[in-house]
Amino acid sequence: MAVPIAVTKPAPLTRAILVKDPSSAYSLRCPSVYLCHCNPKRKELPFPPNALRRKTDPKWRGGFSLGLDLGLSRTGVALSKGFCFRPLTVLELRGQKLELRILDIAEKEEADEFIIGLPLSSDGKETIQSNKVRSVAGRLAARAAERGWRVYLQDEHGTSAEAACHMINMYLPFDQVIRTLLALRVMVLERYFSLLGEDAELVLPKSLDLQEKLRRAPSEDSDFCE
């Protein structure tokens, strides 16, 4: 007598979703289920963030992550590899000068990815400021891709960073604004690493040549390679 065998269908594979945004680039949003339960070797994800690489592969040695808070007139900058979080500076630049200065800092600090806070509304929808951030992130992504560096957007909604954004727009003493900006940038980096980059949104340049440069970029810091 034949014994019936229960057959379990495999769960469908979750894929990254390519979303077009108002900036000069595309956004590659990676669902949390995909990132948390994907193959540890990360072959399914074309551009895994450093937070995920470092968690799933203890032997992986990559660059730093540079956190950015793009304010109306000032940009807070911080640095981390996930172990400690170091505020760097506050830039009072805009446009091309800001983008080039950010790239200079990344090169000096040996960073290979940028984590930019995205100020969504309380219900998770786009805002005027978030659209401006996306626009700057798109231009920065195109410049960064020339060097093989990636740009990610990190949702700030629901964190203490959201409250800090409101403080910045108030009439506060300059030194207090600076401290707030630096603290905000550290908060976003902390959230990014605590979630393993699972809700980080990759800003992908439209240019296929630049996308290819990202794919060919070394996955490890050359100082650690044999």
Automatic annotation (TrEMBL):
GO terms for biological process: ribosome biogenesis. Transmembrane segments: none annotated. Pfam families: RuvX. Residues 63-163 form the YqgF/RNase H-like domain. SUPFAM superfamilies: Ribonuclease H-like. GO terms for molecular function: hydrolase activity; nuclease activity. InterPro entries: RNaseH-like_sf, YqgF, YqgF/RNaseH-like_dom, YqgF/RNaseH-like_dom_sf. Keywords: Cytoplasm, Hydrolase, Nuclease, Ribosome biogenesis. This is YqgF/RNase H-like domain-containing protein. It comes from Eucalyptus globulus (Tasmanian blue gum). The lineage of its organism: Eukaryota, Viridiplantae, Streptophyta, Embryophyta, Tracheophyta.
